[in-house]
Design brief:
single chain; alpha/beta; Transferase, Pyrimidine Nucleoside Phosphorylase, Chain A, domain 3; Pyrimidine Nucleoside Phosphorylase, Chain A, domain 2; Aldehyde Oxidoreductase, domain 3; three-stranded parallel sheet; 12 strands; 47% helix; globular; binds uracil
């Protein structure tokens, strides 16, 4: 077998066999196939697609490229969720303690942010001293004792995805349904949880720009999961605007804590309650969705989920004082106010521009090795359908850097009037 023949076959819209797919995944992971040939193949896949059968083979080959978590020593029903990525997406920070407070187990491995999207692990690390890397023994002990742990993905899980995703990121080949589906499902299967829920986002700040595309991606991932013997569920959610009002690492943790205290934004709260209820039904703890959702709401409103978050932070050695006193988070040097240029009703606040502006303020990475300013980001004061008066505060920007015209314009023009 030869990589050039495989590239040419895909460039001519051919269907690759399981052997050919195994060959290039293993060859690339073991560094026998160089980046330039893999880039060419990824571009051929992006342009010509893959059949469902090829996507299943690709997912399996990626899954088999590394170790798989064995969660069988964990007591209870293990659940996991994955978001396809967005702006201000802090769902895991609320959902993980919420589901654990309901009696389910979330042994979660999460990623870091890149570009305009944030990552859960970076957000958690804005909590002073929070450890996001645990030994397998510490991880299992914590999960068995408190029902929740959130740590960074280890390099042993799906090394093929680690290498391929990094290459896709710099070769314009992220935006391909079979590549996204195989990347996500291989990681979720390797993580080993019994129940998987995917949060497939659509809109301005998401990979999938339309609801139809998000549904197609969700269907593909559910299909691939089923072929590999895993029941996968999916929710389709709107990412035209950021989720909630806060964008940036510590700002998002604070908004999550507010949500756990019962004062969070409606969109974030609703998404978390919905996913939690789906887990409770899928795990057979409840047979009725509405009752499951009412129980989730009770756990949120009673403070049970907040207490679980405190336990999570304490177990991972974070400074729990910051949960009640936000001044324990790193504070930014500057803040800047963006005011409404005229009176009117807002049609939307473009997520992509806000995410990009937050990254430029220091809240995200432009390249993999950039260091994040944990306090940098944006807090919105208005969103879709809000009526604003000229001069009214639209957003506050936080940073250790001086504000540039580029960032100011990105934020100002993200606010689209009806
Ligand atoms: N998230 C992933 O984990 N992989 C992709 O390919 C896209 C989004």
């Amino acid at each position: 077998m030869n990589i050039i023949d495989i590239i040419i076959k895909k460039a001519k819209k051919g269907e690759l066999s399981e052997e050919e797919i195994n060959y290039f995944v293993n060859g690339y992971t073991q560094e026998k196939i160089p980046d330039y040939q893999m880039s060419s193949l990824l571009m051929a896949i992006l342009l010509n697609g893959m059949t469902r059968k090829e996507t299943v083979y690709l997912t399996k080959a990626m899954l088999d490229s590394g170790e798989k978590n064995d969660l069988s020593q964990i007591k209870g029903v293990t659940v996991d969720k994955h978001s396809t990525g967005g702006v201000g997406d802090k769902t895991t920070l609320v959902l993980a303690p919420l589901v654990a407070s309901c009696g389910l187990v979330m042994a979660k491995m999460s990623g870091r942010g890149l570009g305009h999207t944030g990552g859960t692990i970076d957000k958690l690390e804005s909590i002073p001293h929070m450890k996001t890397s645990l030994s397998p023994e510490e991880f299992f002990k914590q999960v068995n004792e408190i029902g929740v742990a959130v740590i960074g993905q280890t390099s042993e899980l799906v090394p093929a995805d680690k290498k391929m995703y990094a290459l896709r990121d710099v070769t314009g080949t992220v935006d391909s349904m079979p590549l996204i589906a195989s990347s996500i499902i291989s990681k979720k299967l390797a993580s080993g949880s019994q129940i998987i829920e995917l949060d497939v986002k659509y809109g301005d700040g998401a990979f999938m720009k339309t609801k139809e595309d998000a549904k197609e991606l969700a269907d593909l991932m559910i299909y691939v999961g089923k072929q590999l013997n895993k029941e996968v569920k999916a929710v389709i959610s709107d990412m035209n605007e950021p989720l909630g009002y806060a964008i940036g690492n510590s700002l998002e943790v604070i908004e999550s804590i507010e949500t756990l205290k019962g004062r969070g934004p409606a969109d974030l709260k609703e998404l978390c309650l919905h996913i939690c209820a789906e887990f409770l039904v899928a795990s057979k703890m409840y047979d009725d969705y509405e009752k499951a959702k009412a129980f989730s709401l009770h756990q949120l409103e009673s403070g049970a989920a907040l207490n679980k978050f405190k336990e999570l932070v304490k177990y991972q050695q974070g400074d729990v004082r910051c949960i009640d006193d936000y001044s324990y988070f790193k504070q930014p040097l500057y803040h800047y106010e963006i005011k409404a240029p005229h009176t009117g009703t807002l049609q939307m606040v473009k997520a992509m521009q806000i995410g990009h502006a937050s990254m430029l303020l220091g809240g995200g990475r432009q390249t993999k090795n950039d260091i994040i300013d944990m306090s940098a980001g944006i807090v919105l004061n208005a969103k879709k359908n809000d009526f604003v008066k000229e001069g009214q505060l639209l957003a506050t920007l936080y940073s250790d850097k001086k504000l540039t015209k580029e960032i100011e314009n990105l934020v100002l023009t993200a606010f689209v009037y009806q």
